[in-house]
């Protein structure tokens, strides 16, 4: 994983075989960002996506193990209630037949590359548990 900063925004590049969760953790440690909005493109050799069941207040996870294009990836970085920076990302991935799947991204492994645009927040972004939905949502 490599990254650059232009004074306002970061660019992150993952190489083939690099894991998204590890790259974001390394990025956070190196930059000390306190919140950001993220968008990206690329490819994934493997991706685990989730669908949040509001009634059960739990994710249903599925792993897709074949090469897929990352058609869209967006989300944010914010501190959870324990003070740990976490990512909340959603994505849409396309297979060789141009069929798509999408959902909450638990993790993925980069295909040829994953390229992320990170717009840092100018104040800390925090999350707080919303008991009605069972998730830590942005605390504005």
What does this structure look like?
- The chain is mainly beta.
- It has one helix and nine strands.
- Helix content is 9%, strand content 62%.
- The protein is flat.
- It has one helix at residues 20-31, and strands spanning 2-5, 9-15, 36-53, 58-64, 68-79, 85-94, 100-120, 127-130, 135-138.
Arithmetic mean pLDDT:
97
Number of helices, where a helix is a run of at least 4 consecutive DSSP H or I residues: 1
Gyration radius (Cα, Å) is 15 Å
What are the low-pLDDT stretches, counting only 5+ consecutive residues below 50?
none
Shape from CA axes? flat
Beta-strand portion reads over 45%
Alpha-beta classification: mainly beta
Count of β-strands = 9
The largest pleated sheet is described as: 7 strands, antiparallel
What's the end-to-end separation, in Å? 31 Å
The H/E string reads EEHEEEEEEE
Task: Please give the share of residues in helix.
Answer: under 10%
Topology:
Layout: E1 2-5, E2 9-15, H1 20-31, E3 36-53, E4 58-64, E5 68-79, E6 85-94, E7 100-120, E8 127-130, E9 135-138
Antiparallel strand pairs: 1-2, 2-7, 3-4, 3-5, 3-7, 5-6, 6-7, 8-9
Keywords, please?
single chain, 140 residues, mainly beta, two-stranded antiparallel sheet
Short description:
The protein has one helix at residues 20-31; strands at residues 2-5, 9-15, 36-53, 58-64, 68-79, 85-94, 100-120, 127-130, 135-138. The protein is mostly beta strands. Strands 1, 2, 3, 4, 5, 6 and 7 form a seven-stranded antiparallel beta sheet that branches. A two-stranded antiparallel sheet has the order 8-9.
